[in-house]
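Sorry, I am new here, but would you mind making up a protein's amino acid sequence and the tokens describing how it folds?
***
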Amino acid sequence: MNMLKRIMNGDYSLAVTFWGFNFLGNIIFTVFFWTVTGIGIYYKLPVIVIVTVIVVLILINYIFNCLIAYGIFSMLKRKITFWRVIAFIVIVFGLLYSIIAIGYIGYSII
């Protein structure tokens, strides 16, 4: 919990926040996501279970990315720099893309 609080307060450097938590965190999440999904498909779990796991994992990742965006915003409140603005824009576009992708996945399931 202390780590999440430090992310939200913008206590980590921009490099650690953006490249460490955001970039590497999303790579690790993606590998975990596809592993869990593949295991569910391999063991022929019911579709509702697989879809529920997918939705929960996506929501957890989205919330974590919102915390990262808030952390970068906290950094911007202290001092505005070019790289912080660019990192914040990239994070916000990623979050908007996630909303569109979740909507598309939900629409295609229905």
In short: The mean pLDDT is 90. The helical segments are 2-9, 14-42, 47-78, 82-109. The two ends are 36 Å apart (CA to CA).
